[in-house]
Amino acid sequence: MVTFAPAPAATIERRERQPLLSLSGVAKRFDTTRHITVALHDIDLEMAHGEFVCVVGPSGCGKTTLLNIVAGLEKVDSGEASFAGRPIRRPGPERVVVFQENALFPWLNVRANVELGLKIKGLNRRERRSLVDRYLDLVNLRRFEKAFIHELSGGMKQRVQLARALAVEPQMLLMDEPFAALDAQTRDILQEELQEIWQRTGATILFITHNVREAVILADRVLVMTPQPGTFKREFVVDIPHPRSFDSPHVVELAADVRAELQHEVFVASGEDGRRGH
User: Fold this and answer.
1) 173 touches 96 (CB < 8 A)
2) In 3D, which of 165, 220, 169 has the Cα closest to residue 195?
3) Per the confidence metrics, is the pTM higher than 0.85?
4) How far apart are CA 191 and CA 217, in angstroms?
5) Which DSSP string corresponds to 98-128?
6) Residue 245, burial from CB neighbour count under 10 angstroms (0-12, 13-18, 19+)
């Protein structure tokens, strides 16, 4: 059985401080020539330093819009969104996004891709080398540092993305269904590795997923969203010790509860509840 090293005392202390992320009454709409779409309504969320939160919900409920607001890629229409006590106005290096589709540069090798953000930050060569070495080791890619992106599997590409995001040492990772396109075996491996990375680094992670069991495996809390306009309907606190496995009875049981809650929202979104009433 895999045993993860406990989070350092500094990490535990960070988790006990005031919220790092705060969303209060957040709403977002998109105006088109034909109609107005309300994507999010009355979103309230607080995340502490070092916390791992997963968001699940029906397709089109606004999960990615929510993540984009936290990233500073979208602006709220009403309510307040703040990070580390400051309003979120634009993207910033303290909030880094890991996308579902890799955003790597094919003309650069693995090391150069991971190093890119450090160059932008202005770190010298020695500092860059040390950080890249550290995070390539963390994601088990050191021996592939000279490989180019087309030579890597899907799982390895996601590891490169994760190493690049971690190397700039952001305060929060924003992960938008990063394992959705991977095969089941690779996804299981990366879920285990991400648990270990989180435990070792004390990173704060907001993770969007359609996979209920993935959410339960990874998160401190799982938040279920309603159909559009999306808002939070229910929170599940996950107090199962790490590392968590896909087939753990506790994971399976809690995932079933989350899935039942989500399934109801899918029925609502598809109009099934209304048809059943006739």
Assistant:
1) yes
2) 220
3) yes
4) 8
5) E-SS----TTSBHHHHHHHHHHHHT--HHHH
6) middle
Q: What angle do CA 8, 56, 23 make, to 5 degrees?
A: 70
Indicate the angle between helix axes 154-167 and 184-201, nearest 10 degrees. Answer: 20
Q: How far is CA 45 from the centre of its chain?
A: 15
User: Do 215 and 223 form a contact (C-beta atoms < 8 A)?
Assistant: no
Alpha-carbon gap, residue 158 to 207, rounded angstroms: 14
Query: How far is the C-alpha of 177 from the C-alpha of 254, rounded, in Å?
Result: 20
Question: What torsion do the CA atoms of 138, 198, 65, 209 make, to the nearest 10 degrees?
Answer: 90
Classified as helix, coil or strand, 28 is: strand
How many CB atoms neighbour CB 5 within 10 A? 8
Q: Give the SS3 label for residue 8.
A: coil
Question: CA 47 to CA 41: how far, in whole Å?
Answer: 19
Report the residue count for the chain.
Answer: 278
pLDDT in tens, the chain (278 residues): 334 344 444 444 444 567 999 999 999 999 877 788 889 999 999 999 999 999 999 888 999 999 999 999 999 999 999 999 999 999 999 999 998 887 899 999 999 999 999 999 999 999 999 999 999 999 999 999 999 999 999 999 999 999 999 999 999 999 999 998 888 898 899 999 999 999 999 999 999 999 999 999 999 999 999 998 899 999 999 999 999 988 899 999 999 999 999 887 666 666 655 444 33
Side by side, the strands of the sheet bearing 232-237 are: 95-98, 172-176, 204-208, 52-56, 221-225, 232-237
Instruction: Match 């606190």 to its residue by tokens.
Output: 237
